[in-house]
Design goal:
single chain, 58% helix, mainly alpha, 116 residues
């Protein structure tokens, strides 16, 4: 029996189109690092004032994303951010990926602690 972390949901497959979960994860990590470097103050404020601000800072947010299996991360991102343009993630405004990860965490606080 396959763990749900190992399979992409149909909705996720449609949202990613031909983008692999591994590439999505790499792009998301790159976007978070860029937001942290170029927009540190604004990104820090987003995290600080979110519902998870007591538990996460930018660094721990990035570490948590890095620790997630790519398919589980993709499933959760699409579940809580269905309208995000995943094919153009690197071209989105720099804080949008931060908001997307925070949306997942505030919608499901156990996301990065338990598999789905």
């Amino acid at each position: 029996m396959l763990n749900r972390d190992q399979t992409l949901r149909p909705k996720t497959k449609r949202a990613l189109n031909h983008l692999s979960p591994e590439l999505l994860k790499l792009q998301l990590e790159t976007c978070l690092a860029r937001a942290s470097e170029e927009f540190e103050g604004a990104a820090w404020e987003l995290v600080k004032y979110s519902q998870v601000g007591d538990f996460f800072d930018l660094e721990s947010l990035m570490e948590t994303v890095q620790a997630m299996p790519p398919k589980a991360l993709a499933n959760k991102l699409v579940e809580y951010n269905p309208d995000l343009n995943y094919q153009n993630l690197p071209k989105l405004p720099p804080l949008e990926p931060v908001k997307a990860v925070l949306r997942v965490l505030t919608s499901n606080g156990r996301l990065f602690l338990e598999p789905t």
